[in-house]
């Protein structure tokens, strides 16, 4: 019996939710990246070129129409008037940022646009404005384009969050998050605008990204939201091809292109694309896991085992993974083991309040009043 097709992990930009965070590597021991680099081969360039051409897929790429990158952030006259009206009478930049944010989110009865969150709604700014819905990336692109029109220095801000994983169509979707960063000219502080400010944490690692990377995320999301079947293959490929042309240094884009080829049975090309992802970022956990699964499926068991072990080490250093284990142990009434896991998580990420909430429950179940009081004091 033929082995089941390997499960593929793909990456898209959705919303801020709880989940697993790839942890930093501790000093004093070999990094996962160094070990991966020593384990895997270099991607053959001829296979990369073949994959990027799309010739092996045997689909009509000319029939696919995508939004031009150079026009993606353009505004309609109605959007320009909305931006100007929203900030009218505000003298200071921080006031303009707040006014524009409120105008987008307030209900129509209060004069706002009532932009609604929709996880799959990676729209262009024009479509987000017209449809009044967006996910975090769509909202960020919309805010950036409107803010720039009224003289604000706004950029999309990439946030390393505890991501969520969704299972759909034999694909595990690893969700990223972005919001908007506005550079206030007369202040040392920047302002952060998020579609979900309640769940945003200022201590999450983050950095402003240039428009090319943000537009690459847009194209990537448009590919990922489509069902993975032959009817959508040409469109998914073209979107990923455009994404890579915008930001070829982003490892997750190579991972997603590889997942497309793996699903179609082009394992040699998929392997080359996963290898390119790991050349760019040897600590890309999704690419490590996907390549390991590909080696298992194609019978390369030694490489499969090596990469699986590296992925496990990488995951075990993850404070959010330790938190997940602690939660499961707590549910099983294994309170002492749960305490060990949650204390490990807290040592590695001492600012995460949800860790202390679980710790308080664990210590209460153990009858440790001193530790219970301390955990409560951190909330």
UniProtKB/TrEMBL annotation:
Residue ranges that the Swiss-Prot or TrEMBL entry lists as coiled coil: none
SMART domains: TPR
TPR repeat extents: 251-284
This protein's UniProt keywords: Signal, TPR repeat
Signal peptide: 1-27
Database matches in SUPFAM superfamilies: Cysteine proteinases (SSF54001), TPR-like (SSF48452)
A Pfam family that the UniProt record links to this protein: TPR_1
UniProt protein name: Transglutaminase-like domain-containing protein
Natural source organism: Gilvimarinus gilvus
Lineage of the organism: Bacteria, Pseudomonadati, Pseudomonadota, Gammaproteobacteria, Cellvibrionales
């Amino acid at each position: 019996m033929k082995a089941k097709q390997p499960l593929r992990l793909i990456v898209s930009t959705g919303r801020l939710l709880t989940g697993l965070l790839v942890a930093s590597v501790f000093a004093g021991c070999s990094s996962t990246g160094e070990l991966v680099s020593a384990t895997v081969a270099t991607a053959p360039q001829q296979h990369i070129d073949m994959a990027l051409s799309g010739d092996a897929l045997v689909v009509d790429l000319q029939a696919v129409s995508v939004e031009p990158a150079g026009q993606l952030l353009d505004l309609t006259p109605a959007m320009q008037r909305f931006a100007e009206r929203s900030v009218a009478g505000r003298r200071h930049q921080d006031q303009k940022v707040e006014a524009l944010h409120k105008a987008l989110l307030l209900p129509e009865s209060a004069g706002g646009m009532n932009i609604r969150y929709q996880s799959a709604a990676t729209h262009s700014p024009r479509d987000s404005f017209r449809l009044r819905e967006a996910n975090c990336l769509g909202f960020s692109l919309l805010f950036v384009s409107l803010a720039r029109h009224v003289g604000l220095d706004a950029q999309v801000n990439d946030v390393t969050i505890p991501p969520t994983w969704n299972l759909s169509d034999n694909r595990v979707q690893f969700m990223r998050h972005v919001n908007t960063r506005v550079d206030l000219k007369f202040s040392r502080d920047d302002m952060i605008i998020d579609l979900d400010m309640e769940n945003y944490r200022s201590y999450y690692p983050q950095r402003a990204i240039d428009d090319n990377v943000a537009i690459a995320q847009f194209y990537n999301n448009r590919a990922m939201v489509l069902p993975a079947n032959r009817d959508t293959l040409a469109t998914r490929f073209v979107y990923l091809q455009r994404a890579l042309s915008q930001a070829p240094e982003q490892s997750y884009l190579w991972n997603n292109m590889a997942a497309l080829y793996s699903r179609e049975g082009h394992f040699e090309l998929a392997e080359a694309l996963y290898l390119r992802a790991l050349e760019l970022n040897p600590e890309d956990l999704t690419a490590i896991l996907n390549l390991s699964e590909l080696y298992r499926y194609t019978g390369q068991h030694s490489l499969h085992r090596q990469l699986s072990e590296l992925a496990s080490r990488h995951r075990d250093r993850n404070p959010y993974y330790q938190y997940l284990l602690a939660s499961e142990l707590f549910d099983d009434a294994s309170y002492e083991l749960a305490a060990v896991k949650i204390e490990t998580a807290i040592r590695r990420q001492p600012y995460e309040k949800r860790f202390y909430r679980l710790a308080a429950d664990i210590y209460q179940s153990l009858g440790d009043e001193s530790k219970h009081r301390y955990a409560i004091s951190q909330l």
